[in-house]
């Protein structure tokens, strides 16, 4: 039975896509069959695993709106154990088109039901909004990882996100759990980075992952090679930090790893 984890934060540039790609690739490296769902019209995780969004014929949009089977839209990647349900720019239109559909919050859950059992993990890369596609992602998910960038205004918007999660838990998805808050782009040399770590730990102690994701050049340049950092430079600090996050999540869920 696959566990569906949404990577969500309505702020842009906090490391959602980097986390989705590298967490998924790390779980795959640990031989857990993993699917990335690219739920952002910018399609960064689609290109980040080496696919051209322009070549995508059917993605999550068609699965939610046009009734395309997700098994027909899923593509394999060059990485063992890692598949992707891609995105392309039409996903922008989905928000508008779905407004008039019945049970519009449930479309992604319905779309993923068919393939859920074929994967150990399904990682959803959410878009930087709390719009209908993100609501769909949170309704489909079993848990959510919230990346928080170690920068100014790190906690901005976090209250609103946690509140949205609460509303979804009470109305649409009572099973939704918070897998954890993930501190990203940490730079040990910067006082600001350390202040953010302290502040987040003070406010949200129980929720914060032990793993800190450092600011690392391999993480920012690997998408331009169309591959996760673990495939680009598996010994880099960035790749190793996401491997550590994957192990932390496996342990939290009572699953073994090498
Ligand atoms: P989001 O999906 O939340 O908008 P991204 O994952 O695309 O955020 O990250 C925003 C930018 O920061 C990208 O250019 C990405 O390559 C870079 N980035 C993300 N995480 C790191 C990191 N740990 N170290 C260095 N650069 C990073
Ligand atoms: Mg993104």
TrEMBL record:
InterPro entries: AAA_dom, DNA_Partitioning_ATPase, P-loop_NTPase. Residues 3-178 form the AAA domain. Pfam families: AAA_31. It comes from the Bacteria. Coiled coil: none annotated. This is AAA family ATPase.
């Amino acid at each position: 039975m696959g566990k569906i984890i949404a990577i969500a934060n309505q702020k842009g540039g906090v490391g959602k896509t980097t986390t989705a790609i590298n967490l998924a690739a790390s779980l795959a490296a640990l031989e857990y069959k993993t699917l990335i769902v690219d739920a952002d019209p910018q399609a960064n995780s689609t290109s980040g695993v080496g696919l051209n969004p322009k070549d995508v014929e059917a993605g999550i949009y068609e699965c939610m709106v046009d009734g395309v089977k997700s098994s027909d839209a899923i593509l394999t990647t060059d990485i063992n154990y890692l598949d992707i349900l891609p995105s392309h720019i039409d996903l922008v239109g989905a928000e508008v088109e779905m407004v008039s559909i019945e049970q519009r919050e449930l479309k992604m859950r319905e779309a993923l039901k068919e393939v859920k059992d074929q994967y150990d993990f399904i990682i959803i890369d959410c878009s930087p909004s709390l719009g209908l596609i993100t609501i769909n992602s949170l309704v489909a998910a079993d848990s959510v990882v919230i990346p928080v960038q170690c920068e100014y205004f790190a906690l901005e918007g976090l209250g609103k996100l946690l509140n949205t999660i609460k509303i979804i838990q009470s109305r649409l998805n009572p099973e939704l759990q918070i897998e954890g808050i993930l501190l990203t782009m940490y730079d040990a040399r910067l006082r600001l980075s350390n202040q953010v770590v302290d502040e987040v730990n003070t406010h949200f102690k129980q929720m914060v992952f032990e793993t800190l994701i450092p600011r690392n050049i391999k993480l920012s340049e690997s998408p331009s090679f169309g591959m996760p950092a673990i495939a680009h430079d598996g010994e880099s600090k960035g790749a190793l930090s996401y491997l550590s996050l994957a192990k932390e999540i496996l342990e939290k869920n009572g699953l073994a790893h090498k």
